[in-house]
Amino acid sequence: MVYLNLSRQGLTVLPPIPADVTHLHCFDNQLTDLTDLPDGLLSLNCGDNKLTTLPVLPDGLTNLDCSNNELTALPDLPAGLIDLYCSFNKLTALPNLPARLKKIFCHGNQLISLPDLPARLTYLGCSDNELTSIPNLPAKLDQFICTNNQLTSLPNLPAKLEYFFCDDNQLTALPYLPDSLVHIECSNNQLVVLPKLPTVLFSLKCSNNQLTALPDLPERLVEIYCFNNPFPPELQEIIDRYINDVPKHQLIISVNHYNEEERRRATLRQAGREMATLRSILPALPGNTFRANDPFAERLRKLQHNHNSFGPRRPRKSLRKKRKQGRKTRRN
Length: 332
Fold this sequence. Notes:
Mean pLDDT is 79; it is low at 257-332. By secondary structure, this protein is largely without helices or strands. The chain has a domain at 1-110: Ribonuclease Inhibitor (Leucine-rich repeat, LRR (right-handed beta-alpha superhelix), Alpha-Beta Horseshoe), CATH 3.80.10.10. The chain is elongated and about 70 Å long. It has helices at residues 235-244, 261-272, 275-278, 295-300; strands at residues 3-5, 23-25, 43-45, 63-65, 83-85, 103-105, 123-125, 143-145, 163-165, 183-185, 203-205, 223-225, 251-252. The chain has four helices and 13 strands. The two termini are 29 Å apart. Residues 304-332 are annotated as: Disordered. Keywords: Leucine-rich repeat, Repeat.
């Protein structure tokens, strides 16, 4: 194995590459063209340049990273290619994918469709494109990220899938969720109902949908975000159902649409009686106003909150500025 690293050198042209080089890194330069790649090259990282085309790729290439360029098309891919990183280009289509391919990162392009996916594929990342459909997913796939496309439906999910991200689409329903799933993000869609959740699920993010109820939550679930859904006013029912039995849950329900403000406040007061449970909840119920001497307000002061007005606390004249509640974000 012979490694050659020419990265971050300010190069506009590659120097002659020795014939015995097997791993070439030339990322983060100003290259506009690649020529005369060694026939024995196994790995090529030419990301973060100004490439508009790639040359014919060596037959033995197993790893290609050409992300963050200006490519509008890819050449034929070698039969032995295992990992393909081509995110953040101007691709409108992908070539036929080799049978040995295991990982595809094609985020941030202009793809309107994907070719048939190889059976060995374990990772598919195709976020931030213009996809309206997804082909059948391989049985070995364990990570699937299709965030921010124009999808209205999805194919069946593989039985081994563990991580599933489909935020920011136009989905009205999700397919059956396999028992292996541990993390689901389906926020910013038009979902009206969620399917049965896997027993091993530990994180669910389903904010900004049209959900009016939640399915039974698995015992292992430790994180749920369900901001901006039109839940009914019986918040206590939700808390009792999903929190009391599993105190470690963090229930986050923000800017949910309630028909009657007074019923919402009454429900919140009822929920406040279960402080042992509420201590494990991160209440994010913006826009609520409570009297200065409201016992429920006093209890909630001990919890994280945002954009709630509680009135002054004796003997102080005003409540300290509310702490900003952080929110975790992910995408590969």
